[in-house]
Specification:
Layout (H helix, E strand, L loop, with lengths): L11 E8 L4 E7 L6 E7 L4 E3 L5 E3 L2 H11 L7 H17 L3 E3 H15 L1 H11 L5 H14 L5
Parallel strand pairs: 4-6
Antiparallel strand pairs: 1-2, 2-3, 4-5
Helix pairs in contact: 1-2, 2-3, 3-4, 4-5
Amino acid sequence: MRCPLCTTNDTRVVDSRQAEEGRTIRRRRACPSCGHRFTTFERAAVVVVIKRDGRCQPFDASKVRLGVDITLADRPVPQDAVDDIIATVERAAYTSQDSIHADEIGAIVLDGLRDLDEVGYLRFASVYKEFQKASDFEREVAALDIEEPVND
């Protein structure tokens, strides 16, 4: 890290701690050349979500969680299973180059819900796939039945 005062390339970390609820690392640094002390903050790179209409906005895992929580309202689903879905979405977002399509996020959530809760899956699918009539639900239920293993 370059010293902002004397521009020496060699500074040392004096103290590190988490900031902003763990989303940032705050480092206190010192320059051995001039003795100047300064603070740096390390944050994850911003990932942009590309919406269906072309708009872009920063990725926010809390929005994904809210959508999943609404979908699973009053359903007997363990919270750690929901956390796993959100973590999968976050991994996909932060391992993408610098953007992720909203459709990719929706597909990951649907995939997680398929194995977790059929009712939650259908609720989410009805919005994600923009169901217009009852036959859309019938088609999706038929697809769920096909994918389930048969236990004889």
